[in-house]
Design goal:
- The chain contains 7 helices and 15 strands.
- It is of the alpha+beta class.
- It has 3 domains: 83 residues, 2-Layer Sandwich (Ribosomal Protein S8, Chain: A, domain 1), CATH 3.30.1370; 77 residues, Alpha-Beta Plaits (2-Layer Sandwich), CATH 3.30.70; 85 residues, RNA-binding S4 domain (Structural Genomics Hypothetical 15.5 Kd Protein In mrcA-pckA Intergenic Region, Chain A, Roll), CATH 3.10.290.
- It is globular, with a radius of gyration of 21 Å.
């Protein structure tokens, strides 16, 4: 048996982590590869952090493409070979004419959930503008969505399976800059990284649009540090790099923006 209480100590996503501990124990007992549902980044990070101390099991995460945010975990005994192809995910194309009724990420997710699908069965959603979107799902949901996902907003759509190689993934562009700030407050560093005003950034933080290391942060005074990843939906991500203190006791911060 795994040290459940030790693994759950201090975790925020206790219910999710507890379920994955159950699956890990199943993998140990049956000598089979066990797959989780699609996990959000905060859960994924927490599970990987807690499980890295274990020698009995191994984890492999995959979400259909290298930059995927939501991913499934394959769990297996340490003695077994574990390859990416064993983390089964499928891709769907949701095609329609959205020229006169544009749809965003939330619209496509809402339409999928409106069919009765639960969020845990879906991975990332890649919005393609006026022609629709592509989505990652667990394979057992493909036929259900092909039959039931027929409309997004007011637009009729055709939903059909595609190969993962057909995903229209745009490699993120990197833009590096250095800023000097009086503090490492989230609003100061994020406004510099995203090139927006401090007041606008405070609004985004207060409205729960900003995540640090995939966790929602609603305090503008939250202190970030080197290695942190700041994300705003639709605006990309900013990675906090090297931090040095100047002679005037200000912070010189290297920032990398991915858009």
């Amino acid at each position: 048996m795994l040290p459940r209480e030790e693994l759950l100590k201090g975790v925020e996503n206790r219910e999710d982590v507890a379920r994955i501990i159950d699956q890990a124990e199943q993998a140990i007992k049956t000598w089979e590869v066990v797959l989780t549902d699609c996990l959000s980044p905060p859960v994924l990070i927490e599970v990987q952090e807690q499980f890295k101390r274990l020698t009995e099991v191994q984890l492999l995460a995959w979400g259909g493409y290298p930059q995927a945010e939501r991913q499934r975990l394959a769990i297996a005994r340490e003695e077994l070979p574990l390859e990416q192809y064993q983390v089964e995910v499928a891709a769907l194309d949701i095609a329609g004419n959205f020229l006169f009724d544009p749809a965003n990420h939330r619209d496509f997710l809402g339409a999928m959930l409106g069919t009765g699908l639960v969020r845990e069965k879906t991975g990332d959603i890649i919005v393609l503008g006026e022609r629709g979107a592509q989505v990652i799902v667990v394979p057992e949901m493909v036929e259900f969505l092909e039959a039931n996902l027929t409309q997004v907003r007011s637009v009729p759509v055709k939903t059909q399976r595609i190969e993962l190689s057909e995903l229209k993934i745009r490699e993120p562009k990197k833009k590096e800059r250095t800023t000097v700030e009086a503090s490492m407050r989230l609003d100061a560093i994020a406004s510099a990284g995203f090139g927006t005003s401090r007041n606008k950034m405070v609004e985004l933080i207060n409205s729960s649009d900003v995540r640090v290391n995939w966790k929602e942060v609603t305090q503008a005074s939250y202190l970030v540090k080197s290695g942190d990843l700041i994300a705003i939906r639709g605006k990309g991500r900013v990675e906090v790099g090297e931090v040095n203190v100047t002679k005037k006791e200000r912070y010189r911060v290297q920032l990398t923006r991915f858009v």
